[in-house]
Design a protein that fits this description.
The complex is a heterodimer of chains A (290) and B (274). Chain A is built from 13 helices and 2 strands; from the N terminus they run αββαααααααααααα. Chain A has 290 residues and is an all-alpha fold. Chain B is mainly α and 274 residues long. Chain B has 2 domains: 49 residues, no CATH class; 206 residues, Orthogonal Bundle (MetI-like fold). Chain B is 72% helix and 0% strand. The chains are: A mainly alpha (290), B mainly alpha (274). Chains A and B meet through helix 1, helix 3, helix 4, helix 5 and helix 8 of A and helix 1, helix 4, helix 5, helix 6 and helix 7 of B.
């Protein structure tokens, strides 16, 4: 039985975490919402003032905002598809009995530990560079014209880089889940004459479903805010071809000093993240009940 | 018939797995290889055998003072992790051992702060940092990284602490252990592995954080993420030097990461996948 004393002790022990996180959440958010209703330019304050929702209306009239939201979603969805499908296949391959499994696992997981700016720079210069990159070397070897990735297909290039960073994460988690699949169940299914495909659909996939959900939710949180990869490679260009919402907010706030517009973009980003968070919380919460 | 793994099956699976693994690892491998080439070699086309020169490493240190950034990365990631552990241990402890009806809600809410996109609060934070003189200071960034990772730290510790059986505490109490003895001899040994795993993962996350560390620093407090980003300018097209700098930036954390695979799965899925 929790006494009054232990209960207040518990509250005292939790207080620092709770208070800190509360301040960290609420103070900047209130500022951002307030700024989003202003015309506010530190460099050119003549027209500063309260403008209500004018900054949000720009989302309809300014093609950059629309492009940024579309690019954000494109990055999230494409990377999710690549990493989840690729992750399932890779996890099933690594789950086979193979020689040197420990080393293979280490090699596969490594990109996850590479900091985003390094990943982006390595891909930009060593792999995708139209003149000196490995892709260009390969293209020339086959007598083809090397592709100018960041000039012609900037968004695809960024998706490839980000997918490379997250594929290991998906693989590792799906593999962990796969390894907890009961060997006897697999054998029983085989005995009953279930083929590879039906075993996959009726046994493996349902078993991995929670892990897949978790992978999708966690990656979505991080993919919604891809930033460094864009900063180091394309800087959002050409034009707005590879600008996502976080990058647009950064540009508006710290390069153009249009704080009102940037804040409106930030609020939209929060709303977008909250829609995702709603589903994420439910999934994680369900797990906690168990 | 089917269950006995044939050697042929194993050979094919091994070959496939190794090919895929090497492809995935290739960008890192090629970076390491290139870091041991001279600048001339580096742009002469595809070659897997470097001449083995160390000149790029020497130049990176001489020109841009790699070591200073490295030190900042260490201070920031370790500092923010220790701070987060200090604040999170009591919270996770009380939630694991005297949970109330609201414990679950509090945990959920903590996690939800993690969902807020950093960029949304960039300008307010920037202002607060500027006005309190925290821009480009190690203290400011340490606190920042601590706040970002605090929810994950609380969660991870909570899932570890929850597995410590409460009966052991009761047994110790029955045997007449004082609260202090209970903490030193019973709880600490059982909690240390969980705390260590949490620290490991958190150091990795803090080391690789690449939004606030780039935006809130210029020179003094700039860690390796900011250092590397400075190589993105067009005049920085020196392949061998870039490779040496990249290798130096990722090596420590890559090695740490290899040892923390299990904790990674557990920590990043909030205990949902073990």
């Amino acid at each position: 039985m929790a006494t009054q004393q232990t209960r207040s002790l518990a509250r005292f022990m939790m207080a620092p975490s709770v208070v800190l996180l509360f301040i960290w959440m609420i103070v900047p958010l209130v500022f951002t919402i307030y700024f989003s209703l202003l015309q506010y330019n530190p460099l050119n304050p003549i027209r500063d003032g309260f403008v209500w929702f004018a900054n949000y209306k720009l989302f309809y009239s300014n093609p950059a905002f629309f492009a940024a939201i579309l690019n954000t979603l494109t990055i999230v969805v494409s990377v999710l598809v690549i990493t989840v499908v690729g992750g399932i296949l890779l996890a099933m391959l690594l789950d086979q009995p193979i020689w040197g499994q420990g080393i293979v696992r280490i090699l596969v997981i490594s990109p996850f530990f590479v900091m985003p700016p390094v990943a982006a720079l390595v891909w930009k210069n060593m792999i995708m560079h139209p003149q000196y990159g490995v892709f260009a070397d390969i293209a020339r070897f086959f007598g083809a014209e090397p592709i100018d990735w960041f000039g012609q297909h900037p968004l695809t290039a960024i998706i490839l880089i980000v997918a490379w960073q997250w594929l290991p994460f998906a693989t590792l988690i799906l593999l962990t889940s796969l390894q907890s699949l009961d060997g006897e169940q697999k054998e029983a299914a085989e005995m009953d004459g279930a083929g590879f495909l039906s075993r996959f659909i009726y046994l493996t996939l349902p078993h991995m479903s929670r892990a897949i959900t978790v992978v999708i939710l966690i990656q979505t949180i991080f993919l919604l805010s891809v930033y460094a990869e864009i900063l180091v490679t394309t800087n959002g260009g050409p034009g707005y071809a590879s600008t996502n919402l976080p990058f647009l907010v950064y540009q508006k706030a710290l390069l153009e000093f249009k704080i009102g517009q940037a804040s409106a973009g930030g609020v939209i980003a929060v709303i977008l993240a909250n829609i995702v968070a709603f589903f994420a919380m439910r999934a994680v919460g369900k797990n906690l009940d168990k | 018939m089917a269950r006995a793994v044939t050697t042929q099956h194993k050979t094919i699976a091994t070959a496939a797995a190794w090919i895929v693994a090497l492809l995935i690892f290739f960008p890192i491998l090629y970076t390491i290889i290139t870091s041991f080439k001279s600048e001339q070699e580096a742009i002469q086309g595809f070659a897997l055998i470097p001449s083995g020169t160390m000149e790029s490493y020497a130049e990176v240190q001489a020109q841009s003072g790699y070591f200073k950034f490295f030190l900042n990365s260490v201070i920031l990631s370790v500092g923010s992790t220790l701070l987060a552990i200090l604040i999170a241990v009591p919270a996770a402890w009380s939630m694991a051992f005297s949970p109330t009806k609201r414990t679950k809600d509090i945990l959920m809410w903590m996690l939800s702060t993690k969902m807020m996109p950093a960029v949304a609060v960039l300008f307010p934070i920037y202002l607060i940092f500027r006005d309190s003189g925290l821009l480009d200071s190690r203290i400011g960034l340490t606190v920042m990284l601590m706040l970002i990772n605090l929810p994950i730290v609380v969660w991870m510790l909570y899932t570890y602490f929850r597995e410590i059986p409460g009966e052991i505490l009761e047994a110790a109490r029955m045997d007449g252990a004082s609260l202090w003895n209970e903490i030193i001899y019973v709880l600490t040994p059982m909690a240390v592995p969980g705390i260590a795993s949490t620290m490991l993962l958190n150091i990795i996350l803090a080391w690789n954080e690449a939004f606030w560390t780039i935006r809130l620093t210029t020179t003094n407090a700039a860690p390796l993420t900011a250092f590397i980003s400075s190589f993105s300018s067009p005049q920085g097209l020196f392949w061998a030097k870039l490779s040496a700098a990249s290798t130096l930036a990722i090596a420590p954390i890559l090695i740490m990461g290899w040892f923390s695979q299990k904790q990674l799965v557990r920590g990043l899925t909030f205990g949902a996948v073990k």
